[in-house]
Design brief:
31% of the residues lie in helices and 15% in strands. It is α/β, with parallel strands linked by helices and 502 residues long.
Length: 502
């Protein structure tokens, strides 16, 4: 009996101890959590936390995946708190934060292995440490407007990188490993000191847009990058291998000068928005010049011919537009603007943009159409014929447009079209002709495919078939000829009454 009572008593005591221990652990855990909350609040109220630490706490509390400290001075702020977000953070914006290469904690950024977007634009970086390949999920990397002279050698390890922004730096070269960026679709490296492009860039199977104006790129190896198989939009203006010819400068100088007294600007006449197709290099305004309604493109600042955008220099655009002369499907220069803010007086084109610009940097290579928007077979055919005619004329003068998008096409209701915005245009020579013209042909093919998809099935007749056949011929034969595309479309137009009338 005594032993049995002892066993019961010991069992009961053990049960009480276990229950008490569980409650104690719970209360200890609760106390610890509350202590952290109160401690954070106390430190925050005391002002001890840095702006970065506060931001990290906010992201943790909201279980967020994005963090923006754009414009916050982090020059004396340690980056180590970012490590607390290494498993959660997908988008990080540290633009305009006064970050420099002299600090020793930049490698902390490489611990954020789930990052998809990293914006380091407009800082003071001269280089980045090796190890960037650890950001295996990265899709967008913004390094524009720094002081970069070189890039990490392991940059090619970013196998998911889609867009790379390097404009406005001091880069002397790109690493050979850049050819391993198998997902790269967009590369902007305007206004650097590049003397050539790595031959490995020919391996960039997905590259569609390449912007490298205002560099020091010569011929030879520097041109081979143009042969990337999917390249459609490119700009090489203001490079030794692509200098604007003297004939273009002469054509520009031959234009009359429109004085301030001769230009009367219309109220609410700004055409620089999406309704006109945009103007990345400046403003486009409606005006009256010598009794005629015109469009005036003014470049972004008083530097005029020295103004540089990511697509190229203002002087190149003005000279090339002047050289093109008059063509029904291209802008026509009537005069130069003779004020402190340089620009061109252009024929006022009628119509609306065929599409809207993309809304983000990842999908920047595809225009936006209305969800249920459709086009007739005849309308689509006339647009295709107009654009092909415009580019054929440009290529006859060895000028590439560089930006053949639907949002850069103004259309009338009947399908008459004008290919506008020559901000990315550049002159090229015979050694680059085949590759450049092949890229432009692919851009036209994509535009026509986008339109053709929106032609109802019951409206797909002879003209539709002619378009599809012309595009298929380009794709299958690898032809570099916009001439061939135009000839096929023109022949179809001649065979169908009203086919070419706009």
């Amino acid at each position: 009996m005594y032993r049995r009572n002892c066993v019961v008593l010991c069992t009961f005591a053990a049960f009480v101890a276990v229950a008490f221990t569980g409650q104690l652990r719970f209360f200890l855990h609760l106390h610890k959590r509350l202590g952290r909350v109160f401690q954070r609040a106390k430190i925050a109220d005391s002002g001890v936390l840095t702006s970065l630490e506060r931001a990290v706490i906010d992201v943790q509390a909201s279980r967020g995946t994005r963090l923006s400290l754009a414009g916050v001075d982090l020059s004396a702020v340690p980056l180590y708190p970012l490590q607390k977000l290494k498993d959660a953070l997908q988008e990080l914006d540290l633009s305009r934060c006064k970050l420099s290469s002299s600090r020793l904690d930049l490698h902390v950024l490489y611990t954020l292995t789930n990052l998809r977007k990293l914006n380091l634009m407009s800082n003071e970086l001269e280089s980045l440490p090796e190890g960037i390949r650890q950001l295996e999920q990265l899709e967008l990397l913004g390094l524009k407007s720094n002081r970069l002279r070189r890039l990490p050698n392991d940059l090619g390890g970013l196998r998911r990188l889609v867009a790379l922004f390097l404009t406005d730096n001091s880069l002397l070269e790109l690493p050979e490993s850049i050819g391993n960026l198998k997902s790269l679709r967009k590369l902007q490296a305007s206004n650097n000191q590049l003397q050539s492009l790595p031959e490995t860039m020919r391996q960039l199977d997905q590259l569609e847009l390449l912007r490298v104006p205002v560099n020091h790129i010569g011929g030879g190896v520097g041109l081979r990058a143009i042969s990337a198989p999917k390249l459609k939009w490119l700009s090489f203006a203001s490079n030794p291998a692509f200098l604007t010819p003297e004939a273009a400068t002469a054509a520009l100088n031959a234009l009359p000068i429109a004085t301030a007294d001769e230009l009367v600007y219309e109220q609410d006449g700004n055409l620089s928005n999406a309704d006109f197709g945009g103007a990345s290099g400046g403003d486009v305004l409606r005006a009256v010049y010598r009794g005629e309604r015109v469009a005036v493109k003014l470049f972004a600042d008083a530097q005029g011919d020295q103004h540089i955008s990511p697509d190229g220099a203002a002087q190149d655009e003005m000279a090339l537009v002047a050289l093109l002369g008059e063509h029904p499907n291209l802008p026509h220069a009537l005069a130069r603007v003779g004020t402190s803010r340089k620009g061109l007086v252009l024929r006022l084109e009628k119509g609306r943009p065929l599409a809207r610009k993309p809304v983000d940097s990842i999908s920047v290579l595809r225009c936006r159409y209305g969800a249920d928007e459709t086009f007739t077979e005849l309308f689509t055919f006339r647009v295709a014929l107009s654009v092909a005619s415009a580019v054929k004329h440009m290529h006859s003068k060895r000028i590439a447009h560089g930006d053949i998008y639907a949002h850069n096409v103004l259309v009338s209701d009947t399908g008459a079209a004008v290919l506008i915005d020559l901000g990315a245009a550049f002159a090229y020579h015979d050694d680059a002709a085949k590759a450049v013209e092949a890229a432009e042909a692919r851009a036209i093919a994509l535009l026509v495919e986008e339109l053709s998809m929106r032609v109802p099935h019951d409206d797909r007749g002879r003209l539709y078939k002619a378009m599809v056949d012309a595009i298929s011929h380009l794709t299958e034969s690898g032809s570099s000829g916009v001439d061939a595309l135009y000839s096929g479309l023109a022949a179809a137009a001649a065979a169908v009454p009203g086919g070419a009338d706009g």
